[in-house]
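2024-03-11 09:14:02 DEBUG pipeline.ingest accepted 1 chain
2024-03-11 09:14:02 DEBUG pipeline.ingest length=308
2024-03-11 09:14:03 DEBUG pipeline.predict start
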Amino acid sequence: MPTPSEFPTLTARLHRLWRDRDRDQAWLAWLGLALAVSGLAHIVVWLVVGGPLTGPVSWRKPIVFGLSGGITTLSLAWVVSALPATRERAVWVRLYVVTMAIEIGLITMQAWRGVSSHFNAETTLDSAIFVVMGLLIAVASMAMIRWTWLAWRLPVRDLAEHRARAYGMLALVGSLAVGQWMAAHGSMVTAGAIKAVAPNVYGAAGLMKIPHAVGLHALQVLPLLAFLLYRAGLPAARRARAVGLAASGYGLLFLAALAQTLAGRLPWDLAPGMLAVVVAAVGLLAVPFAQALLARRAAAPTLARQGA
């Protein structure tokens, strides 16, 4: 096992991933960076042009979809880096890159046109764009589901990293399922003569975006924890247990968010039993991060002596 001074920093780890990238990882990395830059650029557009950040027609969509899509794509580049470099992987990567680029591009185009990108059937063009968006995200989802299956079947070299990758991808698939539910529900309630004002609200006040977002970002939270535990110099078995504990907490948090939505309640409108579940989930998630930070602090004097 390396000494504490030999553990790479996060910057060094990211630099190594970028340096050692193959063509598939490069496709994903460049798309992720482009989407993130687009999201950041639209923050500037909003500050200059003004306008609302809420509602079906706002600059929020290119901002959020750009940043979220970019971060997710960069995370997928890390996942793909662990998969065998096969022709199948290359095909799925290219399908994902093309479909996601067009998907976010259509959302951004609709924002610049001043019309809603989702559940919009006001004109033939808008209706066609929404249908195409649904087909595009379906293809991208198939790629992510395939990578989830492969991630679970990878040989285990580092159990903590394997769990972070596998459970993060599983949560991502859960988020995709909620996204499909949102699309089906929103399309149903906006059909007919009476159209719902908030197609992403379930029941009285259930926000479907909450479990969707929670599931989506496990792929950043769990790998970050695995890296912090490694950086702290903890043994492999302790790191694996800590990531497993955090994954169980994250899964419980996702289920709690989903239950709140299905009950038609706001995220903070927690019944006593649900409040206990959320507190337990946050605790299971927070303890491993605290463990990593405390272990890192304890190792700091050793690092300082070695650097002297």
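2024-03-11 09:14:41 DEBUG pipeline.report The chain has ten helices and two strands.
2024-03-11 09:14:41 DEBUG pipeline.predict end
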